Amino acid sequence: MTTNEYLDHHRGRFEAELVEFLSIASISTDPDAAADVARCADWLASHLSGIGMPLVEVIPTPGHPIVYAERMDAGEGGPTVLFYGHYDVQPVDPLNLWSNPPFDPVIRDGKIYARGATDDKGQVFLHIKAIEAMLATEGRLPINIKLLIEGEEEIGSPNLAPFVKDNAAKLACDSVLVSDTSMFAPGQPSIVYSLRGMAYMQIDVQGPNRDLHSGSYGGAVQNPLNALATIIARLKDEHGHILVEGFYDDVKPLTEQERLDLAALGHSDERLKSDVDVSELFGEEGYSSIERLGARPTLDVNGLLGGFTGEGAKTVLPARAMAKVSMRLVPHQKHDDIANKFISYVQSIAPPGVTVQVQDLHGADPVLVERDSPVMHAATQALEETFSSPCRFTREGGSIPVVLLFDQVLRVPTVLMGFGLNNENAHSPDEHFDLSNFHTGMKAVTRYHHLLSGGGR
Ligand code: BES
Ligand code: ZN
Question: How far apart are CA 398 and CA 421, in angstroms?
Answer without folding.
Answer: 13
